[in-house]
Records
---
Amino acid sequence: MFEFLGDFYGIIKSLHIIAVISWMASLLYLPRLFVNHAMHIDNEIICAAFKPMERKLVNFIMKPAMIVTWVCAILLIITPGVIDFKTDIWFHIKLLCVILMTIFHVFLELEQKKFMDGAVTRSHKFYRYINEIPTILMIIIVFMVIMRPF
């Protein structure tokens, strides 16, 4: 049924990797913006500079990159011969990590809205710590895809 996708495998996989790189860059950069924003939460001039940067990062890079990542991933998954759901345990681990990455993405979007509304309650230290979450997930994902240990 989806055999035609095999003809576009290289293009879809390339777009997937490009989107993942863009998404990861955003997931790593936005918490860093939050760190600096939270450190200067009482300075209206500095906050006014961070708000459009955060909004544009979310709306023009992070969200579209996530959508393209997921669309390409689904196309790759349904391409015949790419994934064997019964034996490719690595894929299930990778998928779990990508779902967790997506949840983290949604969390960051909600935090960005709080910054826009001036309703942020978390310290800059919190954002420093959570900045490690996408890195850890990325490491697991890359090892699952490249090494396919299970």
---
Amino acid sequence: MGNNNFKSVFEELKQKFSEIFPINDIHLISLNIGSRKTILVTIMRKGGITLNDCKFVSSILSGYIPEDYDLQVQSPGIGFEIRKDSFNILELFLQTPVKIFYTDIMEDKEKTIEEEGILTFVDKSVSIKKFEKNKKNKKKLKKIGDIDNTTKNLQNNILGNNNDQNIISIPLDRIIKVKTTFFPEEI
């Protein structure tokens, strides 16, 4: 009986929230009901979510929540996973740091690859501007006085000065999941 009650509450809220969202460009990302009667609503808008956005959405949704349930409204935050069935929301995460997990074939074997960067474009493919990998090399190379052409090319590759090497595109059909992450300098 308890499980059916959760299911019916979930279905009712899902239907009602689909009529309400988007609100002020705020989109419903996920709706979950926990075993302790906690309704967890995750929201997002282009550019991110503020505490005031969460309060605003909470004030609107609280009238639809059964009395014996608790409502929590949150942003996706760090580590939020977007899977294939939700790729339609990727555009909301533009200019956000992400880690993309995708498959590639190397030496006749399918391999999962991870890339981190800022999400810059979403359509039939996803593009990210990759983070600098090695800041120590950058500092060392800046101190070098006279550099020959070979070393200059190496420096450009390491520093990511060549824009083509700094931005990668991955077809949507090869992506397994996208996960929100920190900027590397914040780790």
---
Amino acid sequence: MKIRQLTPENYGKAYALLRQAFPRSTYEVRLVENFHKNGTAVHEWVCIHRNTIIAYIAFSNAYNGSRVCGLHLAPLAVKPEFQKQGIGSELLRFALRQDIIKENTLFVLGNPGFYTKFGFEHCALPVCPFDKNNAHFLSIRNKAASPFTVGYESEFNRK
């Protein structure tokens, strides 16, 4: 198993993985396709096993108004037949060790039971526009002291 940055020649394989990992949703694959189509700055890694992409992770900018205030982790995906084997956890641990990730506040909208194992904590501030009461909104290195609604790249709002 190898972890590498996603390269343009593997975009199609990453999209196929996202379709498999989220079979009832087209949102995740469209999100990543739009990141690439629009040239949005995204930090992406994939886990490769036997020349097949089996996991994917991405981080995009988080905003306080027009100012970048951190990174959003989304999506994290693992090919269904490789789920529940620690591969997503290993990919996340790898990403958390990368300089660009270590230097930023991180936000994630996800399962607290999973993400708290990696140092994410519930955050009251900023407010997540996609999560009523921030019940599933977590962060690392969050120093927000005044209220604001965290912004996402425009691709998150596309249907």
---
Amino acid sequence: MSITTYVTNLKSKPEHVRKHIALWASVGITVVIFLFWLAATTGVTSSATSSATTAVAQVVDKAGTPSQSLVAGVGAIFTDIKDLIFTPKKITYSSVEVRPGK
């Protein structure tokens, strides 16, 4: 059964049935998204977690007060935008492979 046939059949059903199907479809999609998120956040190895924790601790020590951190963040955004617009990026290739055409 194609999706267009399913939607056509769904349009002919009563409203309470359509709402029921819409609710369970949205719950299913939400569960799938949550599982992907959970897998992505828990898939970090312990050595990477400890180094990330150390890096976060170093950043927190450098941050100072919340207002200093906010000002530094805004300044970093403007610097990034300026670099993005006005600084050309140089791409270097370490090796080039030439193959004969087909």
